[in-house]
Amino acid sequence: MVKAEPFRQRHGGILLHITSLPGSDLGADAYRFVDFLAEAGITVWQVLPLGPTHEDLSPYQCLSVHAGNPKLISLQALVEEPWFGACEVDLGDRKAVLQQGCRRFAIYANQAMRAEFAAFCRDQAFWLEDYVLFQALRETYGHTPWFEWPRKLFRREGQVLKAASQELGALMDRNRFEQFIFFRQWSRLKNYANWHGVLIFGDMPIFVAHDSADVWAQPEYFALDKDGQLTVIAGVPPDYFSATGQRWGNPLYRWDRIEADGFRWWLRRMRTQLRLCDIIRVDHFRGFEAYWEISASAETAVKGHWVKAPGESLFHTLEAYYGALPLVAEDLGTITPEVEVLRDQFHLPGMKVLQFAFDGGPDNPYLPENHVENCVVYTGTHDNDTILGWFNSLSEDKRHWVYECLGFPAEPMPWALIECAFQSIAQHAVIPMQDILELGSEGRMNLPGTTEGNWRWRFNWSQIKSDLAVRLRCLVERYDRL
C-alpha cells in the first residue's frame, strides 16, 4: 500500500481542541494559535471531533457524524460579515445572534453569497436535510431523544415528516444557515493553517450516538428493536483506564446491511471527514476487526464478547474510492495480531503513548526503543492525565525508573518526556497543549468512565511563556521535524 501524503516526512504536532482555545470558537484565537504553531515550527494541529455535542459536551457522542458544532461558530466573525450590517448585538446571547444572522443573510446577502449557500445545501443534501429536520424536531420536543418522540415521527412516516417540514421550516432554515456558517468558517481556518504549513489532524469516532440524526434517519444500519431501543451496545472490556471496562452505550452497526449497500454510509462519512481534515485519527480502530458487544441491560462492560467486523472489506472499498487515505489507527487497549494485520495491511500508522511505556518488561511497545517509523507518538492523549499529573502520582521508585528508562535526561518533567517524543523514530510526534504549558492534573481534559466535569479545560494566552515558541522550534529542528 502507498503512504498517504502527510506521512512522507517527519512532523511535530500539538493536540488542542477548539473548545480549549481562550475563545472556544473559530475566531481570532484560533488564527493566533496557528501563528504560534508556525512560529514554533509545529506542522500538525490535532483536534477532537467537531460535531454538535449533547449536554455532557463529549465530542465522541455527537448529534451527527457530518454536521459541525454551531457552538464553535465565531459570533464576532459572523457579525463582521458585510451582509450582517451595522446593528447592536449581544454576543453573549449566541442563539439570538445566530437567529439574527440567519434573518439578515436572507435579506442582505449578495448574489455570490446566495449562490455559495445554495451550492452548500445542494452538495451536502445527503445528510443536511435529515439533520436540520432532526434538530428542529429535537428543539420542538424539548431536546428529548428521537426515540421518545411520537411514534409516527421516530418511525419517519412520510406524510408526517412532510407536515413537520412545512411547520418547522423556519427552524430548519436556521439550522441550514448555521451549518453553512460553520463550514465556511472552518474552511477559512483550515486554509489559513495550510497556508502557514500546518496540517489539521482530526478525529473520527468509530461509533455514533444513539440520539443522533444518523441513527434516526437510517435505523436500518443499527442494532435497534422496533421501538428504536438498544438491545446491545458498544464498549470495551476492562483495561488500563477502568477495572470494569467502559460501557459507552453507542448502538452497534448492522454490518451485514452496511456491507450489502457497498459501504455507502461509510463512503459518505469519509467524504465529510476528508473535507474537514488533512489527517484523520480513527478512534477505536480495533472495532473494525472485532468489537465488544455488551447487553444493553448490563450495568458494566465486564460481561460481553467479541464480534467480528468486516474491516478489510470496508478499507478496501474506501481506498478503491478515495485512494491512499491519511488515516491514523487508534490502536490502544486490547490489540490482537489480527488487528495489527488489518492496520498494517493498509499501511496505517498506529499510536504510541509514552505514559504507557514504563510498565511491564523491555518488550513494552510504547518504550521509545520499540517505536516504529510508521506511527504517531504521544506523551499522552485527551483521555490521560497530563505528564506532570501522571508523573507526580507515581512512587519515588517508579519516578526513578522512568528517568532511568529515559537515560537520565537533564530536563525535568514534562520536558524530558516531550523531548523523548520529538526524538522518537515515529514519523509524527504530538504533544497535548497541557504538557507544553507544564500543567498538572488541573489541565486534564477527560477522565474515561465519568460524565461530569469533562471537556471543559481551556488555556489562556498569559500561560504561554515568551520563549516557548523558540524552545519548541529548537526541538523541532534538532529532531528533523521542521
TrEMBL record:
Pfam families linked: Glyco_hydro_77
Top-level taxon of the source organism: Bacteria
InterPro entries in UniProt: GH (IPR017853), Glyco_hydro_77 (IPR003385)
Alphabetical GO biological process terms: carbohydrate metabolic process
Enzyme Commission number, as recorded: 2.4.1.25
Catalytic activity: Transfers a segment of a (1->4)-alpha-D-glucan to a new position in an acceptor, which may be glucose or a (1->4)-alpha-D-glucan
Assigned keywords, A-Z: Carbohydrate metabolism, Glycosyltransferase, Transferase
GO molecular function: 4-alpha-glucanotransferase activity
Family: Belongs to the disproportionating enzyme family.
Protein name stated in the entry: 4-alpha-glucanotransferase
Protein species of origin: Nitrosococcus wardiae
Name of the encoding gene: malQ
